[in-house]
Amino acid sequence: MTASTHHPGRADTAIRTRRTDRWWLPPLLTFLGLTAFVVYGVVRVFMNKWYWVGEYQYLAPFFSPCVTGGCVPGASHFGQWLPDLGILAPPVVVLPFVLGFRLTCYYYRKAYYRSFWLSPPACAVAEPHGSYTGERRFPLILQNSHRYFFYAAVPVASVLTYDVVIAFHGADGGFGVGLGTLILLVNVVLIWAYTLSCHSCRHIVGGRLTHFSRHPVRYWMWTQVSRMNARHMQLAWASLFSVAFADLYVALVASGAITDLRLFN
């Protein structure tokens, strides 16, 4: 892998970098992590089965909300207001908004710019691109739509929260807790933490304020979001793996590969 080190406006050097540490490790791990998630997501969506456990009311996060006519009985908590999409699995209704929120996220931009595009792969390391236009042209100008994807991410997180509430009630209407219930609960907590720590959320609750002292409620909200925002990277990864793990757990239970560990019914 070669890289040009003669870019207009940048210092010329005969070597790619003077760094002696393992600068290539973080982008490599990011590449492997994101690739693994994408592969799992594609396989899971086109599998289009094993996403509902009626006995314990578990709905896999990748398939929530399930609103098409092709959804299995009981999985449609909000009705089936779309026809059966045939070979298109139910997630195609919601995943574009979820993926749009992740892809335009400020942290994920940095992550896949460095790991997939090598632009640049690390600080003080030359990149293999001869030009740079920023995010001013198509398609990267679409990154500016992040705030609008945030508006879509909030109802999606709300739906996942409702799914957790349903999971605390068995098919007979009683109250129960299983390992799957706790996994879904942890996942939705991480999803909310990632969503609310978003830079767009921080601007919405505290942006355009000249005097914080005149808006104590919004200032308090801005302070709380700012604290979470400092951990946005960690929350991004934690929520990414938690949603995949929760989805996989439901799939394994639904397929009969494993039995849900019930704490009490």
Automatic annotation (TrEMBL):
Keywords assigned: Membrane, Transmembrane, Transmembrane helix
Top-level taxonomy: Bacteria, Bacillati, Actinomycetota, Actinomycetes, Pseudonocardiales
Protein name: Succinate dehydrogenase
Organism domain of life: Bacteria
TM helices/strands, residue ranges: 23-43, 87-108, 148-168, 174-194, 235-258
Species this chain originates from: Longimycelium tulufanense
